[in-house]
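Here is an idea for our session: we take a single protein and study its fold together. Which protein we use is up to you, so please pick one and set it down. Once you have written the record down, we can walk along the chain together:
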Amino acid sequence: MPSKARNALDDNLKDIRCLLELHTREGETLKGKLYGARQVLSKSAIVLITAYWEAYCEDIAAEALEHIVEHSMNSDSLPKELKKQIAKELKKELNELAVWNIADNKWKELLQTRLTKFQENRNRRLNTPKSAKIDELFYESVGIKKISDSWEIAEDMTAKHSREKLDKFVELRGAIAHRGQSSKSVQKAEVEEYLDLIKNLAAKTGWAINKHVKAVTKKPLYQNKKRRMKVKVNDK
């Protein structure tokens, strides 16, 4: 059974399938007369896929941290990188007694409060979910170093290649959002390629998160389920 975040992503991505079906149906019916309308559909799909990818990363980071807080027996079991983040934040506190905020079982309360603050900050800054931002998100929230290293989809689709493709599509989303009609045209094939990429990246990200929280808590976030992964490495 997949994570709640992945279930939400799959539900959201049904919207993209609807747009692609409408694109096909209009193309067959109108035979190119409404090129502009089909461009609106393609560009809208790129913007939505980016938003859904961002939401997925935010959701599964929160889900993972909640799982760690709930199932960790004590603070010693917390990921080393996460403890480093907390220690760094406590050192910045002007209150000299701030260190006692993690005494006894208060470290759980601290993590929950930290998650709320982190979500608020992230909502303001994670508006361009490129690979570097995603790496930063998972490092700061649950202590995973460079989660994008897990994004190897196939022999000819390395993690580096996946990062480059994701960044390219997020940049395309930015061009559409800021320049609208003046941005470059978007083909239906590009939408399908982006959709497949995000499905694959979500699967790899979920796998890495599940492995991480299981190592910390001895309890998986979700039960692994094999997914058929479509791989496209077209660099159009």
Q: What stands out?
A: The chain has a mean pLDDT of 82. The helical segments are 4-30, 35-71, 80-91, 106-125, 131-142, 159-179, 188-217. The two ends are 34 Å apart (CA to CA).
